[in-house]
């Protein structure tokens, strides 16, 4: 099965084009005011048009209420919603029913025991994203460029469809693939020259590293 690759936190047409030309299966747009990658829904809606028919456009939200999600869905028309906060299984089910869109639920992982949090979401969320726990005092629940011990994913039920995330870079992605052979990868900070500033060269380097793995 081909490896899913999501380039997340895109905010310009040229870096989005680099992600699509590189072969991204998913492109992510952030809706979180404290993030340097934050977009307004209409802005993401204009950008995401280039991804139509080429990659899944993912709206990344954090404990968003119905009004915020309504605006994102109306103005951006995402293919998928990523819920990156403390959403419960009931809330995930509610969001799916309200918007009729697939949901990727994110989890913060540090040790094997953290994977037990996934069970109540199986059959509710369509996909999972395993990210590192944010560093103490961090403003963002994700997009911190921090990795976790990927080996905790070894032995995970192969029926769990997930993206490995957190601190991936062109330098370490081959090692992540070698260690856990994840079905998908998600990168943001690792393809930036500064927080929130995606770099076309680093995006291309990331795809080269994945292909060479
Ligand atoms: O990237 C952000 O600013 C962000 C904000 C709020 C929730 C999630 C966010 N990003 C997600 O975290 C992963 C990992 O990022 P990184 O590669 O470690 O920088 C990113 O791909 C988004 O899915």
Automatic annotation (TrEMBL):
UniProt EC number: 5.3.1.24
Homology family: Belongs to the TrpF family.
InterPro entries cross-referenced by the UniProt entry: Aldolase_TIM (IPR013785), PRAI_dom (IPR001240), RibuloseP-bd_barrel (IPR011060), TrpF_fam (IPR044643)
Molecular functions per Gene Ontology: phosphoribosylanthranilate isomerase activity
Protein name: N-(5'-phosphoribosyl)anthranilate isomerase
Catalytic activity: N-(5-phospho-beta-D-ribosyl)anthranilate = 1-(2-carboxyphenylamino)-1-deoxy-D-ribulose 5-phosphate
Keyword Amino-acid biosynthesis attributed: yes
Domain of life where this protein originates: Bacteria
All copies of domain N-(5'phosphoribosyl) anthranilate isomerase (PRAI), residue ranges: 5-208
Biological processes per GO annotation: L-tryptophan biosynthetic process
Pathway stated in the Swiss-Prot or TrEMBL entry: Amino-acid biosynthesis; L-tryptophan biosynthesis; L-tryptophan from chorismate: step 3/5
């Amino acid at each position: 099965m081909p490896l899913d690759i999501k380039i997340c936190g895109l905010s310009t047409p040229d870096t989005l084009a680099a992600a699509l030309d590189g072969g991204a299966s998913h492109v992510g747009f952030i809706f979180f005011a404290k993030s340097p990658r934050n977009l307004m829904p209409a802005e993401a809606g204009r950008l995401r048009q280039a991804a139509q028919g080429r990659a899944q456009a993912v709206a990344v939200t954090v404990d968003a209420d119905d009004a915020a999600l309504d605006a994102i869905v109306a103005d951006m028309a995402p293919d998928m919603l990523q819920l990156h906060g403390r959403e419960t299984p009931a809330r995930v089910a509610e969001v799916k029913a309200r918007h009729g869109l697939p949901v990727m639920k994110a989890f913060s992982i540090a040790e094997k025991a953290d994977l037990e949090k996934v069970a109540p979401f199986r059959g509710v969320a369509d996909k999972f994203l395993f990210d590192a726990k944010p560093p103490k005092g961090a403003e963002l629940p994700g997009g911190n460029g921090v990795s976790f011990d990927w080996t905790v994913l070894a032995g995970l039920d192969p029926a769990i469809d997930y993206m490995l995330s957190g601190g991936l870079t062109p330098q370490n992605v081959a090692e992540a693939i070698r260690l856990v052979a994840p079905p998908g990868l998600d990168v943001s900070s690792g393809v930036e020259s500064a927080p929130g500033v995606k770099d076309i060269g680093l995006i291309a380097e990331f795809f080269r590293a994945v292909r060479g793995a």
